[in-house]
Structure formats: C-alpha cells, structure tokens
Model the fold of this input.
Amino acid sequence: MFSLLHPGKNRVLAFTGLLISSALLTTGCASTDKRDPASPTSAQGNPKVDPYEGFNRSMYGFNMGLDKYLLKPVATGYQYITPDFMETGVSNFFTNLKGINVVLNDVLQGKFGQSAEDTGRFLTNTTLGVAGLFDVASSFGMQNNVEDFGQTLAVWGVDQGAYLVLPILGPTTIRDGGGSILDRAANPGTYVPGTGILEGINDRANADGALNFIDEAALDPYVFTRESFLQYRTNLINDGKTDTSGYDLDLDSALDETQPANAGGQKSGKTESGSPKATNGITDSNATAPTATSSTSQAFNDMSKSFDRAEQEFEQASEKMDRYASRKRRRR
Amino acid sequence: MSRKLYFGISFLLMLLSSTATFAEESAKQVVEEFQNQLIDVMKQGKSLGFQGRYDKLDAPVKKTHDLPKIARIVVGKQWEELTPEQQTKLEDVFTKLSVSSYAHNFKDYSGESFTFLSEEETGRGGVVIHTNLLIPGEKDVKFDYMMKKKDDGWQIINIIADGVSDLALKRSDYTSVLSREGFDALIIKITEKIDSYAKQ
Done:
C-alpha cells in the first residue's frame, strides 16, 4: 500500500512546500489591509469579515440556482439509484482518503497523540476496512477527527481573512481557500481523474440534511449560511473546546447594544456615529481603506470593478438558468 | 398566648420560605427536566402529530427559555427603534416560532438520549450546562446551554450546538432582514417559517 503511494507522495510533498509559501503570501497580502486586533469570529454585519458581501451574495444566488437545477437532481438521482450500503461505502472511502491529510495536519499542529490515533484509524480502515469502504475503526471506538490545512493555518496564527463564496465550491474564507488548495494536493484522490465528480456528488448527497435545515430555518439564507460556516470552522479550529468567557462576551455585547439605547436620548446620534452601515459590500471595501496609499486603493478599485463584472455575469447566468427552467416547465 | 401564636406562625413562615428556596431548581435540573420532556415528546412524536407536539412543548419551552429576552437580543440595537406594539408582536411571533421549531425538529425517536457532561460558571453569574445528545450510529452532538438567573429561577438564554451559537446565528439572520427589508418583512418571514413547520 505504501509503496504504491510513495512516488505520488513525494510529488505531493514537493508540491505542498511550494503551495504553503504561495498560500501564506496570498493570505498575508489579503489580511494586511484588514488586520484588526479584535477580529471577531462572527460577521455580525461587520464589513471586515464580509467586505465582498455584494459579490458573495450573487455568487451564493448562482450556486443555489446551480444546486436547484443541476446538483440537487443529480445527488437525489444518485441516492435513488445507489443502494444505501454503497452510498455509505463511497462516503467512507472519500473520508478515509482524507486520513493522510488529517494525520499530516495533526503533526503540523503539534497534536502528536491525536496523530498516532488518526494513523491507527487510517491504517485500520485501509486494511480491515477494504481500502476504506468500511468504517471499522469507528466501531472499534476510534473517532473520526476533522483536520485540514485551513485549521493548521489558523493554529499558526494566519488571519481568517475575508469571507468568500466561490462558484460551485461554495463558502470559504481567504485562509480556508488557501488551505483547501493544500488539502487537495495532499489527497491521493486528486491524482485519479474522475474521482472528483463522484466525490462532489457524494458530498452534495451528504449535505442534503444541512441544506434542507437552512432552507427551513433561515430568514436570510445567505447570512445564515455565512454565520454557521464561520462558527463551525472556529469550532473545528478550537477542537470543540468552547471557552465560556466567549459566551458571556458575546451575550454582553448583545445586551450592551440594547442597553445604552435603553437610556434613550442620544439614540439617533449613536447610530450615526456607529460603524458605517454597508448597503453594498463592494463600495464599503473601498471605504474601509482610506488610509492606504493611492496605489493600493487603485488596486482595490480595480479588484472591486472586476468583482463587479464577475458579479453581473454570474447574476445573468442565474437568470438564464431560471428562464431556461421556466421555459422547460411551460413546454411540458 | 397570642404572642406565642405569633412567634409560632412567623417561625412556620420562615421554615416555609427556606424550604421554598431549597425547592428552587438548579440550572442543571432545569435543563435536564426540559431534555426529558423533549425525549418524551419524541417518543410519542408520530402519534401526536405536529399540533400535538406543539401543545405538549408550549408550556415547557416558555417556562425554561427566557424568550422575551432572546427576542430582543436577536434584533440587536434595532429593538429600541421598534414601537411598543411592534415589540409585542415580535415577542409573540418569536415565541410561536421557537415552540414550532422544537415541535418540528424533535418529531420522532430513534434511541436518542441526552447526557450531562459538566457545569461551568461564567463571569457574570451565568452558568453553562454542557450536555451531549447521543444518537445511535452517529456522532454525538454537543449541546451547551447558557443559563441566566431570573426572579423565578434559571432560564435558558442560548443554546450552542456543536459550537454553533443559536443566538448569534439568529441575531445575524434577523438583523440582516430588519436592516435590508424592514420590520414588516421580518414578521412575514417568521410567520412563513411557522406555517411551513406546521405543514410538515
């Protein structure tokens, strides 16, 4: 098994080294403008967490359209034609492939005990579990840990960076996006053509419950998705260890928001002097960088403009999908 | 004689009041009682139907959650900009939504159980009760209950499921709708959610 992996692994490692530096570069660049000592984990209408909200929202709309008309039907079809045990097998297989990645990131984060456990888990499922099709390790009581390069970068102190919604790939942050390139490089499945599609369909099928939940519970699905994604990632980075001081701060800030206004009087003045409410994420990203030199703000402008263009194109694509779907329905 | 009686009565009263404080539930008991009620409803979930589950959960949810406080936290600073009628309306639909979502999400039983993990005091007199929801064949889900003490005992103010804070999530969601579309749209959207929960 290992001799089989070896040539690939060398290539992976060389590739990884190259990418780490480039990822750090991009994340570094992106975070310099927005460095905030008290950077909150929750976006909470904070333009610093989601400066490209306008772009992200239209990308979210595009993804949801794509999901509705293409991904969801495909995933449902896959669930329909695939026997349950095979579906679980496929899921287990792809989860197991990520095992190498998990061990690698355990080590990079200095969790040596956990890395030994995860190595045991990976070896058990690869051998006894027939190349990972059966998750025998879980029935032995070895739990599945989720570790990836995005979390490692966080542990190393890289800022979260802006929240981004990528076409097809969905929600991420600048830090996680950099990390996911490395995740892909360290996953053997990447080097076998065609597996990506099956993995994508499988991932979509597994996400069905979560997506339905968002559909049911969210008033603003975009914000709901963003908040739950960011909180979920923070929880993974902290390995589920929630510190209670965070709860109180969170709650107190919520209470403080209502209490000073409670006293009445300077209410209107307060809202005006408060952080400028962003009506549009993109114009706001310009507004937040007035201290930058003219060349960087120029660069920002250009970037916003190209974001704007992309946004329009994706919006048109969403509209086209809707029109096409409604035409098809009428024909029936 | 009458003085003796007076002392006797006041002694009795003192005794009563002290037992009353002893009888007051701890934060842990409040959570555990509520979780037992949830599991109970889940077990009879199918036969009860949505309305049956709603009716059974209505009183326990209102008793154990500080819903008026939660309702004002989720709209953030915009609470003060609402008229008193709007505030009452929001509290009202928010309460209905909370009970509905419990009735919708805890609808059937497949061996789930809650276990108590630990209790933790937070800075400002709050308590966090850490529990696990065990689902057979699936990963445990962590449920952390943030409790605050009110006059009539401990009440849930926030639930954090696997690190995702319900209060923070709702606050972003609700403030976003409020600032983008206004109060009426918020109420319409909440009512739609209640209706769609009831339909399923």
